[in-house]
Amino acid sequence: MSIASYEKKEGGYNRVFIFTMNNASRIVARLPTRISGPPKLTTNSEMATIKYLQSKTRIPIPKILEWSDDSTNAIGSEYIIMEHAKGVQLHQIWPAMSLEQQIACTGAMVRIIKQMAAIDFPAYGSLYFDNVDIDSALKHSFTTGYVIGPHCGSTYWDCEAREPRYYTSAKPNRGPWFDPAAYCSALIDVGVSRLPPMDASVNEKPSFHGAVAEHIRLLNFGRDVASKLIEDPRIRKAAAPILLHHDLHKRNIYVLDEDPTTITSIIDWQSSSINPAFMHANDVPDFAAQIPTPDEHCQSEDLPAGYNAKLCNQAFIAGVRLLMPKLYATWELDDDVARFFEYCHRTYRDGAGILRQVLMDLANRWKELALTGSCPYPLPTSEERLTHGEEYKALEHSQELKKFVTSRLNTASDGWVPTDAWKETLENHKELYDEFLQNMSEEELKEVWPFDKPCSVVAV
């Protein structure tokens, strides 16, 4: 057997080669990029996760042919080689599926997620083969051939684009963790690690983003609030260690072309790790997500696609409630509590105003939520509320601008675009930037623009 042709696809986290063999079969080779996660650990964990799930569940995952977590191999990169997923990507045929087919497919996916949610784990972190090359003190024996070790998600490592880490105030805290309090403390440590030294002239941020000292103050309160929250029995009930797919959307799901209610493959298990269930609070895959209302005078369910989406959403939630109590417990948490865990480690990425608003909401509703004692975060004065309101409004406008720009340019949130679209995107970026310059000064625009100032387009 030999290679007849190949196709290369560039992604933000992987380079993918699709080989068509002379017998018409297809093979996929994935090579992780630097920002996908920590070297060796990301690939080892993905392989261990796949192999473990293949041995314990009936989840359809493409057969692995070869892999290496050693970048000094002959190829010069870590890699995973697997059979191509059988069937067709769900996103390609979802719009043409009938309502009955969409609901049946949603039910099939609920049964797949149930198999993952049913597995009990003794700690939070990532799954590895027991011979993984890490300090033995960081390996927690789980079952024959496997250990739970440090979390390999990029959140915990210095590998995210434009987000350097500084471990002067908080040492790396990547797990494994054996109780939810330790996990939450690590989330705050992640937030601290994102903060540059107060005297450093790096990562210049808009004035409304908040000074480093303010981020430190909020994170300190965040640590105290987390310690109080995790004492609540409702939150501890929603803290069960659970392993779910990291990015379960329609592009990672394959179905039979002739029967799209039959799931044939789930792909891309990179960075799928063991987290407290509450980190998945209200997570709904895109195939079961309701469509946002397109117009203030029109309900989304008034449109055919919106009506279908509403019913699929209801079917998904009903399935989780009936079949996955461990996961459904997280959906019973109040939204303000869930938002705290979602944002408490992202203050320097999102802006101080986001975490401040989350803390204020919790402080205002502490008694209403029947939380014990008093909220460690003090309610702000009238003057502080006024200042916060102005900063928060500026932050919201900045985020709305980023969504608009990334949508217009068709880029990822961090600005990533495919190589073949690079030159066109640069031209469109400059054109869009110049449009905004017609209504505001360049100094004002530079403060809120989500990407670097566009430069002249050069040949690539």
Protein described:
With 460 residues, the protein is of the alpha+beta class. The chain contains 14 helices and 13 strands. It has helices at residues 41-56, 90-93, 99-117, 180-193, 212-229, 233-237, 304-323, 325-331, 335-343, 347-350, 352-365, 382-409, 422-437, 442-448, and strands spanning 3-10, 14-21, 26-32, 64-68, 79-83, 88-89, 126-129, 140-143, 146-149, 241-243, 253-255, 263-266, 274-276. It has a five-stranded antiparallel beta sheet with strand order 1-2-3-5-4, covered by helices on one side. Strands 6-11-12 form a three-stranded antiparallel beta sheet.
Task: Output the keywords.
39% helix; alpha+beta; single chain; 460 residues; five-stranded antiparallel sheet; three-stranded antiparallel sheet
Task: Describe the secondary-structure layout.
Blueprint lengths: L2 E8 L3 E8 L4 E7 L8 H16 L7 E5 L10 E5 L4 E2 H4 L5 H19 L8 E4 L10 E4 L2 E4 L30 H14 L18 H18 L3 H5 L3 E3 L9 E3 L7 E4 L7 E3 L27 H20 L1 H7 L3 H9 L3 H4 L1 H14 L16 H28 L12 H16 L4 H7 L12
Antiparallel strand pairs: 1-2, 2-3, 3-5, 4-5, 6-11, 7-9, 8-9, 10-13, 11-12
What does this entry show, briefly?
This protein is α+β, with helices and mostly antiparallel strands and 460 residues long. The chain is built from 14 helices and 13 strands.
